[in-house]
Automatic annotation (TrEMBL):
One GO-annotated biological process of the protein: determination of left/right symmetry
PROSITE patterns assigned: ARM_REPEAT (PS50176)
Stored Pfam families: Arm, HEAT_2
Gene3D superfamilies in the cross-refs: Leucine-rich Repeat Variant
Segments for region (Disordered): 34-105
Name assigned to this protein: Outer dynein arm docking complex subunit 2
Extent of Basic and acidic residues compositional bias: 35-50
Biological source species: Serinus canaria (Island canary)
Spans of repeat ARM: 410-452
GO cellular component: axoneme; ciliary base
Top-rank lineage group of the source organism: Eukaryota
Biased composition (Acidic residues): 84-96
Length: 573
């Protein structure tokens, strides 16, 4: 054993041996750096084999055995899962346990099998076997994906009670201990169970504290852990409570370290999902700094930067800040990217900025609307949906939006055909866009020719409230042309719409009442509505505090009542 291995062993013994080894092992399995593997190159397969045999001999001599499930799969493909360690009186039980298939399993190398054998001794061996196994593991490149990204390894750590141990060591003041601890946490934070544990074990405060460390690797791991954990609202609030937003903003100045920058911008992006955090970022001038990072950055950084700006520009003040900082042009330029994740974030950011007329004028002058429309052809449904959502504020705030939309050759046919999509978010966003486009009579006429009415009617039986809302809005606006009201009745859209009034979402009620009011201009539709019991439901909504809902409900009831009176008059004179 060389000097470094010996010194590490002594250090481990000093800190109560086995528990500390488990922590080191966790990090090895989840985030061992390439540099470490370079320092300790792989030995030949024969040397590893002999080491494993000697360890097995020691284990048998101790009279203890642990079961690890290993089985060879056909054609050299195999997978391994760590199971709860159980005491066994038979040596043969170890070799006859079945194996569950690991996600993304590929042909596994001999090194992989060696790691499993060594892990057995770390988990259940005596101190001597544990020491030797850990030292032997230094010969393996544990940054390989089969170890580094294994969901089962993460579950094994949790089942073995590793989370409280990690929480305890997170309070340590030594960077050489904190780096592997936080590195383990940030790898595991992709699992919801770990995020819950990180919140409940009070680890966020320690992560925030270490953002101010002088070690950039530790800062990177802390920011990355927050990036993954901040998917949860409670954790976003905790980061703000423990004053973690200011150090995150300050770390944006370290733009030369791209790995650190990617982690920090990712953490800012996820934290900005909460409005309270956005207001804090405004105080720290974070938006201005993010705008400077929109150019000459790797894709990983750009995705996070534009994602953060997309969240921040939901606030009116930040939309002006982005414009004054010169951020609109680089945003529009990113609409020509090819990375789907980047495009989704760019679409949201451009759409957010377009909510302000001054920004919209700049976007239009840079041909941004045409670029957004072209993204409707993208094969990725997420890109299609985000582009359609972004078009909504563009159409609302553009000068002479009707003419702008007509200038896109084949654009109206393209958006109508997207109603044939199987993706709910695409359908919802396209319905919202059609509702805006249909406000222009000429565009509505063109969409009618392309069959928008039957396509909208086919969607009417949905149970998705978000889709219901925007579908009802689209139907309401599409009723304004020709015989579309009659066509909606003929294509059986009225009865399903009547059922929307039973939903609990008030926004669905408003959109549905508007659609029913327009449809009630046709007598046959009034009969269908009456048969489906809309009058009683609409009567309750006449007393709503929402003026638009109140007016639409009253108008629909009035049309139904007028038809009933006309029928009675014709019948009885």
């Amino acid at each position: 054993m060389d000097n470094q291995e010996f010194s590490e062993s002594q250090y481990a013994e000093e800190y109560s041996g086995k528990n500390n080894f488990c922590v080191v092992l966790f990090f090895f399995f989840l985030n061992k750096s390439k540099s470490s593997s370079d320092k300790f190159p792989k030995k030949g397969s024969e040397e590893r084999k002999s080491r494993t045999v000697s360890l097995t001999t020691k284990k048998k001599a101790s009279g203890k055995s642990k079961s690890v499930k290993i089985q060879e799969a056909s054609k050299g493909k195999a997978s391994v899962s760590f199971e709860d360690v159980s005491e066994s009186s038979s040596e043969t039980d170890e070799d006859e346990q079945p194996v569950r298939r690991q996600e993304g399993s590929t042909d596994l190398s001999a090194e992989y099998w060696g790691i499993q054998k060594l892990a057995k001794y770390v988990k259940g061996g005596d101190p001597t076997a544990t020491l030797i196994a850990l030292c032997s593991m230094r010969d393996f490149n544990l940054s390989e994906e089969t170890c580094h990204k294994s969901t089962k390894n993460k579950k094994a750590i949790r089942k073995a009670g590793g989370i409280p141990l990690l929480a305890r060591w997170l309070k340590c003041a030594h960077a050489n201990i904190l780096i592997p601890i936080v590195g383990t946490l940030q790898e595991c934070a992709s699992e919801p169970s770990y995020r819950l544990a990180i919140r409940t074990e009070g680890m966020i405060e320690s992560l925030v504290k270490n953002l101010s460390s002088e070690h950039e690797e530790l800062q990177r791991h802390c920011a990355s852990a927050i990036f993954k954990c901040a998917e949860d609202e409670e954790i976003r609030d905790l980061v703000r409570k423990h004053e973690g937003l200011q150090p995150l903003s300050a770390l944006l100045d370290k733009s030369e370290n791209k790995q650190l920058l990617a982690a920090v911008t990712g953490a800012i992006w996820k934290c900005a999902i909460s409005r309270e955090n956005v207001l804090k970022f405004q105080e720290y001038k974070t938006v201005e700094t993010l705008v400077t990072l929109l150019t000459d950055q790797p894709e990983e950084v750009l995705i996070n930067v534009i994602g953060a700006l997309g969240e921040c520009c939901q606030e009116e003040e930040n939309r002006g800040t982005i414009r004054r900082s010169g951020g609109i042009a680089p945003m529009v330029n990113l609409l020509t990217a090819t990375n789907p994740a980047l495009l989704v974030n760019v679409n949201k950011a451009v759409g957010g900025c377009a909510m302000e007329p001054e920004n919209m004028a700049i976007i239009d002058s840079l041909d941004g609307v045409r670029l957004l429309w072209s993204l409707l052809k993208n094969p990725n449904p997420d890109v299609q949906a985000s582009a359609a959502w972004a078009l909504c504020p563009c159409i609302e705030n553009a000068k002479n939006s009707g003419e702008m939309v007509r200038s896109f050759v084949g654009g109206l046919e393209l958006i109508v055909n997207l109603l044939k999509s199987n993706d709910k978010e695409v359908l919802t966003s396209v319905c919202a866009a059609i509702a805006n486009i249909a406000k222009d009579e000429e565009n509505l006429a063109v969409m009618t020719d392309h069959g928008v009415v039957p396509l909208l009617s086919k969607l009417a039986n949905t149970n998705n409230n978000k889709l219901r809302r925007h579908l009802a809005e689209a139907i309401a606006h599409c009723c304004m042309w020709g015989s579309n009201r009659v066509a909606f009745g003929d294509t059986k859209a009225v009865a399903p719409l009547a059922r929307y009034l039973k939903a609990k979402d008030p926004l669905v009620h408003r959109a549905t009442a508007l659609a029913l009011y327009q449809l009630s201009e046709d007598p046959n539709n009034c009969v269908i509505m009456h048969e489906n019991g809309v009058v009683k439901l609409l009567l309750a909504m006449v007393g709503s505090t929402d003026d638009i809902l109140q007016e639409a409900a009253a108008g629909c009831i009035a049309n139904i009542r007028r038809l009933a009176l006309a029928t009675e008059k014709a019948k009885y004179g």
